[in-house]
Design brief:
The chain is an alpha+beta fold and 113 residues long. It is built from one helix and seven strands. The protein has one helix at 2-19, and strands at 23-27, 32-34, 40-58, 63-64, 75-81, 88-98, 103-112. Strands 1, 2, 3, 4, 5, 6 and 7 form a seven-stranded mixed beta sheet that branches. β6 (88-98) and β7 (103-112) form a beta hairpin. The longest helix is centred in the N-terminal third of the chain and has 18 residues, at 2-19. It starts with a helix and ends with a strand. The model is unreliable at 11-19 (pLDDT under 50).
Length: 113
């Protein structure tokens, strides 16, 4: 009976582990130092995700408001237009919803010289 319960638990856990769509790539990449202000952020996921929130904080404590209207659907690659102000450090936090109904969230940062 213990083996049966353990088998059920492992099957359920492995199903949950593959059900999510982790972030594969960001442009600019996490921890990068770039020399030009980008005009967009690219977030690429393993599976389809609908972005629900993206916030960007500059090292001067200002926040950049983003328009997610172009990212309303479930896609694996999101191009989010951004108007960056100045050089310095940027911290990006994002939240999304996978097609399986699970919420996803994460963050990355980069520097503009």
């Amino acid at each position: 009976m213990k083996k049966f319960i353990l088998t059920i638990f492992i099957c359920l856990w492995s199903h949950c582990a593959v059900a999510h769509s982790p972030l594969n790539l960001t442009i600019p990449s996490d921890g990068s130092l770039i020399t030009e202000l980008p005009d967009k952020l690219i977030l690429e996921f393993k599976g389809s995700v609908r972005l629900t929130l993206v916030t960007i904080k500059h090292n001067d404590n200002s926040k950049i408001k983003l328009n997610l209207n172009s990212s309303l659907g479930f896609v694996s690659k999101h191009n989010v237009p951004v108007s960056f102000k100045d050089t310095g450090s940027y911290f990006v936090e994002w939240r999304g919803l996978g097609t399986d109904g699970h919420t996803l969230k994460g963050s990355f940062e980069f520097n503009v010289k």
